[in-house]
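Example record

The entry below shows one chain as it appears in the dataset: sequence first, then structure tokens.
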Amino acid sequence: PYFFTPGNHETRMGFFSDNGYQDRLIARVKRVGAQCSGEAGINTICSYKGLVFLLSSLSQMRGHEANLYGGSELWLRYMKVQLALPETKSAVWTICSWHAPIKGLMLAGSVLYVKTVPYELCRDIGAMVLTGHSHVYSRSYLLDQFVGDTVRIVDKNTSDILLRPGVTFQITSGLGGSYIDKSWQPHTLPQFIKKACKADSVTWGAFFCKYNLNGDFRKAFCWFEDVVGKVWDQFHLRSESGDTNAYAL
């Protein structure tokens, strides 16, 4: 199945129109039997085969132009309540997904001034953060603090990542087929383990994770691969969050 969150491009491309992106998201959820609540793609919490994921538009939709990209109270209240639910906290794997990163974790693209509060909410339960917007690929180190545009690295392990309550990391996977960005950030930014942009001659690709690695529900293997088969990043991931017995694949 393919789940998604809307960004600034979808605002202009009929997210709410008949057979638009929102209708297609709802149809996919029903087809695969995912358990979801909330407004599809806007404020949504879902469970699918033991994976819990939060889909948030973070104020990019529904006429909240005064708070555009800022993470209005409506969005943040929903996130706080859903991430605090017992069934969310008991999940071994939780993913938080929204469109744009904070400036300190953005390699390219226009700055949309997402606040750090969503990161802190997801960090509290040890959730991975998936973003787009920048037409690049990047992976941050494990982080345990977000203040303004500044982040704090807690672990510099690059290939065996231990995800747990109190820490998170961000993946930006924005190479879905449009133009590829040139980074406007220094290419030596310390918060990134891996990054690939126009200067690296990266082409379009996607980020993948295989869960239940070798029959262990707490283990996963993740990688970013382009359309010609080149793997730009790969790592093992283990989660110490939640309760293994709460879900089964």
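Notes for this example: The longest strand covers residues 216-226. The two ends are 15 Å apart (CA to CA).
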